[in-house]
DNA sequence: CGGCTTTGACCCGCGC
DNA sequence: GCGCGGGTCAAAGCCG
């Protein structure tokens, strides 16, 4: 498509954070109360918010690919509408994925209704971290990328620690005197 | 060779 | 009850 409008008077590599307006982001997309009241474990794996399966329906798997109770795995992963803390913001950038310092692994992509651009699903690669994020480009303004974070990281930012480690070492060294 | 992306299939929630 | 839309899984392929 050649109708790609370049960001107006903005360096292409410099993301600009645009706070969403009320009519652009649904209110429930930002659960500030849950967010600031330490509701991070909602998105963690150890939460008790898991769907209680009293009697999991014996789904017959046509593929028969589950040899070691894949059913139970699927049952466990289904979370009842727990509404984890979510932060959605708009970013003006030519890059779909903005580098926030964390490492993400893509686990899905889906075309959504009312949008010509697919929505991408990412998950934090840290073993103990369950944070997810969705990335979608606005159909109205293709220079705007909507990033929705779900959950809170329970580990330090790798890149941040990487850049800080020399400084920390120096501080430790100096603190011995 | 290990990690990541792609992509089709599957499952669930919700509205009608 | 049914269909639609959204979210996730997992196998296969790709790449450094």
From TrEMBL:
PROSITE patterns: WRKY. Pfam families: WRKY. One of its GO terms (cellular component) is nucleus. It comes from the Eukaryota. Residues 93-158 form the WRKY domain. The keyword Calcium does not apply. Keywords: DNA-binding, Nucleus, Transcription, Transcription regulation. Residues 48-68 have a biased composition (Basic and acidic residues). One of its GO terms (molecular function) is sequence-specific DNA binding. InterPro entries: WRKY_dom (IPR003657), WRKY_dom_sf (IPR036576), WRKY_plant (IPR044810). It is found in: Nucleus. Residues 36-79 are annotated as: Disordered. Its main location: nucleus. This is WRKY transcription factor 46.
